[in-house]
Amino acid sequence: MPRKSVQLGYCYGQCAIEKKECSTIAYFRSSAEMQTAAGAHGGNCLLTQSIHAHLLGKCNGEEGDVCSPNELSCDDSWIAYVDADNHDDDSCTVEDTVFGSCGNRCSWSPNSCLENEVWTFPSQGCSSDKVRVGACVKDNHAYCSVSEDSCDALSYFLNWYEVTDTMDVQCYLSREKIVISPPTASPSTLRLSPEEPSTKELGSTENLNKADTRNSAPHVVIIVTVVAIVTLSIVSFVTAYLLRKRQVKNNTPPRNVDIFIN
Predict the structure, then answer these.
(1) 226: how many CB neighbours lie within 10 A of its CB?
(2) Which whole-number Å values give the CA distances from 99 to 134, 199, 211, in the listed order?
(3) How far, in Å, CA of 195 to CA of 91, rounded?
(4) Is residue 180 in some structural domain?
(5) What pLDDT shows up at residue 90?
(6) What is the SS3 string spanning 177-226?
(7) Which of 121, 137, 172 is the last residue of a domain?
């Protein structure tokens, strides 16, 4: 089943997940309305990095502050909720927030829970790419959204399971994170230890010895060839030297003979 993720809407001068983030709701434009504005007038709100960097609020309690997407997510033990516009802490981004869960399903708020599901906030492991959300449907197209407050006047909201059943798509808060595994060594680059022969690679010690014999055979051929060439060169040099010496001896002119006449 196809997977889609949330794109931000736009208020005058800022990106927004829901209308409530806008100082004037009339200025809000949904992600569906922003599709023709790519590259200008808030078009950057549709980019993946914009949802990751979007600031959220936080639950402010006696034991410390915890990043939160909304006041509904905060437990009763939290005494106040501070939204993104009223605090100067920029660490509460969508990417860095741990969200709540309805049972075993990571969710935007307890409003996403079914009757038999228990809300837990924050819920370990619930990063933005695991948070199931609904969608605003417009012109038979699903635009993933966290709540009805993200839709415009010409669209209607479906929750997380309704959009799956109706539109045949799964909506998440952000795109799935890609984990790159480190490269593994190729079997051809692994060296076998004489003390610990690999029966997995060769099957037995006997096969290992056969492999060593096969690997050493090319080296033996090379050595024999080099010795033969050197020996032949020496024999050729000695033969040429002897022939040259004999030729010089045969061509030696006769000695002068002195004849005395009385």
Answers:
(1) 10
(2) 16, 49, 57
(3) 55
(4) no
(5) 74
(6) CCCCCCCCCCHHHCCCCCCCCCHHHHCCHHHHHHHHHHHHHHHHHHHHHH
(7) 172
| Nearest residue to 96 via CA among 174, 2, 38, 172 | 174
User: Is the sign of the CA dihedral 9, 11, 14, 16 positive or negative?
Assistant: negative
**pLDDT tens column, 230-243:** 777 777 776 776 76
Residue where one domain finishes, among candidates 112, 139, 172: 172
Q: Is the pLDDT of residue 110 over 60?
A: yes
* Cβ-based neighbour number of residue 166 at 10 Å: 12
Helical ranges in 33-135 per DSSP H: 48-53
Taking alpha carbons only, the member of 177, 147, 173 closest to residue 159 is: 147
Please report, as a single letter, which amino acid is at residue 242: L
Same domain, 146 and 218: no
Percent of the chain's residues with pLDDT above 90: 46
Burial of 136 (0-12, 13-18, 19+ CB in 10 A): buried
Per-residue confidence band for 223, with pLDDT thresholds at 50, 70 and 90: confident
Place of tokens 């030729």: 247
> Cα–Cα distance between 61 and 38 in angstroms, integer?
40
Residues 6+ apart with CB under 8 A from 197: 205, 208
